[in-house]
Amino acid sequence: MKTLDLKPILADRNLIAYCGLYCGACRSYLKGSCPGCKENAKATWCKIRQCCQAENLASCADCTSAKLEECKKYNTFISKVIGVILNSDRAACIHRIEEIGYDKFATEMAENKRQTIRRK
Question: Is the pTM of this model over 0.85?
Answer without folding.
Answer: yes
